[in-house]
Backbone:
C-alpha cells in the first residue's frame, strides 16, 4: 500500500529517471552548473556563550567569502517555541553572523523569517530571545509571511508549478544566507540549508503550514525553492542539534560546530553524513546533487575541522532508519 510520502515522491523519482535517460529534465540544464569542487567549513563552537561572531568571521575568511558592499538577508529557522528544546536557530548564532558579516564589509544585514507553524511572529521573536539580540546588534527584522511579494518564475519545476510569489526582501537581497538549525525531519529526513527555505514562502499568500508546498511535495518544493532563491551562503547552527522526531518534537543533541559554505548542497550533504544519514537516500539531496550543487564527498574540500571529529548517529523515527549510512 502506498503511503502519502510514496505518492508525493513518485513524480519526483520519475522526473529524475527521465533526466537520466536524457529526456527533458524539469529544469533548464544550461542554467545550472554543478561546481567541480566545493568547500565546506566546520568550525568548533561547543557553547552559545562563546564569541560566535569570531567563529563565523574566521569561517568567512578561511573560505574566502567576499561580502563587501552587499545587502544581506539572514534567514534563520524559527518554527515554534518550547523551553529547553532545540527547535530554532539560536539567536546568538544569528547575532554572531550579523556582526561577522558587517565586520567583513556587508553594506546592510537584515533578518527575515516566515514561520510555518506559529503565526504570532511577535511572540516567537520575544520568547526565543531573538528580539533582544537584534536590538543589541541594531538589526532590522522582516516578517516574510507578510512582506510585499512579487510573482517570479521558478527555475525548476519538480512541483509542476511554474511560478511562485516570494517576498520582495528575499528577491532584493544581494546575498541570501540560509541559517538552519541542524535537525532531523520526519518527512524530508533532514532540516538544513535547503529545507530551511520553506520559511521564504509567504503564509499570508499560501496559508499555514505553507500548504502549497505540502500539496506539491516536500522534496519537490525544496528543490524548486533552492533553484529559484539560490542562497549564496549557508551558516548552520550545529552547536546543539535536534534528533528523533524533528523538526519540532525531537530532543536536543550536542554536536559542537558551526558549518559554513557557499554550496548549500555540499553543506547539507556534509551535515547529513555527520549525523549518520546518507545523502543518496534523502530524495531532495539526491536530486540537488544532480543540478544544484556538489554532494560527492570526494569533491567536497573540508576546511576547519575534519568531519570525523563530529561524526555521530542521530536517533531518527522508524521510517527514516532506512536512510541511514550503511555500516
Residues:
Amino acid at each position: 500500500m502506498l503511503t502519502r510520502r510514496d505518492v508525493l515522491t513518485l513524480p519526483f523519482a520519475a522526473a529524475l529517471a527521465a533526466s537520466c535517460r536524457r529526456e527533458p529534465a524539469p529544469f533548464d540544464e544550461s542554467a545550472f552548473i554543478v561546481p567541480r569542487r566545493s568547500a565546506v567549513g566546520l568550525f568548533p563552537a561547543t557553547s552559545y556563550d562563546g564569541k560566535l561572531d569570531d567563529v563565523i568571521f574566521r569561517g568567512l575568511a578561511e573560505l574566502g567569502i567576499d561580502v563587501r558592499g552587499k545587502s544581506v538577508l539572514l534567514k534563520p529557522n524559527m518554527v515554534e517555541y518550547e523551553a529547553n528544546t532545540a527547535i530554532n536557530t539560536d539567536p546568538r548564532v544569528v547575532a554572531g553572523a550579523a556582526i561577522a558579516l558587517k565586520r567583513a564589509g556587508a553594506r546592510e544585514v537584515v533578518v527575515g523569517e516566515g514561520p510555518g507553524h506559529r503565526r504570532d511572529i511577535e511572540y516567537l521573536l520575544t520568547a526565543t530571545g531573538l528580539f533582544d539580540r537584534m536590538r543589541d546588534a541594531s538589526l532590522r527584522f522582516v516578517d516574510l509571511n507578510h512582506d510585499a511579494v512579487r510573482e517570479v518564475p521558478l527555475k525548476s519545476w519538480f512541483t509542476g508549478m511554474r511560478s511562485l510569489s516570494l517576498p520582495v526582501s528575499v528577491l532584493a537581497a544581494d546575498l541570501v544566507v540560509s541559517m538552519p538549525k541542524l535537525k532531523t525531519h520526519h518527512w524530508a529526513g533532514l532540516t538544513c540549508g535547503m529545507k530551511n527555505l520553506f520559511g521564504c514562502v509567504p503564509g499570508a499568500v499560501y496559508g499555514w503550514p505553507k500548504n502549497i508546498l505540502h500539496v506539491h511535495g516536500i522534496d519537490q518544493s525544496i528543490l524548486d525553492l533552492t533553484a529559484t532563491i539560490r542562497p549564496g551562503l549557508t551558516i548552520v547552527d550545529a552547536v546543539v542539534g535536534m534528533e528523533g522526531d524533528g523538526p519540532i518534537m525531537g530532543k536536543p543533541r550536542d554536536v559542537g560546530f558551526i558549518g559554513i559554505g557557499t554550496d548549500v548542497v555540499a553543506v547539507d550533504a556534509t551535515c547529513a553524513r555527520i549525523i549518520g544519514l546518507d545523502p543518496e537516500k534523502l530524495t531532495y539531496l539526491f536530486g540537488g546533487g544532480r543540478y544544484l550543487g556538489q554532494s560527492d564527498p570526494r569533491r567536497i574540500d573540508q576546511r576547519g575541522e575534519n568531519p570525523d571529529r563530529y561524526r555521530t548517529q542521530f536517533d531518527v523515527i522508524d521510517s527514516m532508519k532506512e536512510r541511514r549510512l550503511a555500516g
Notes: The first strand starts at residue 38 and ends at 44. The first helix runs from residue 4 to 20.
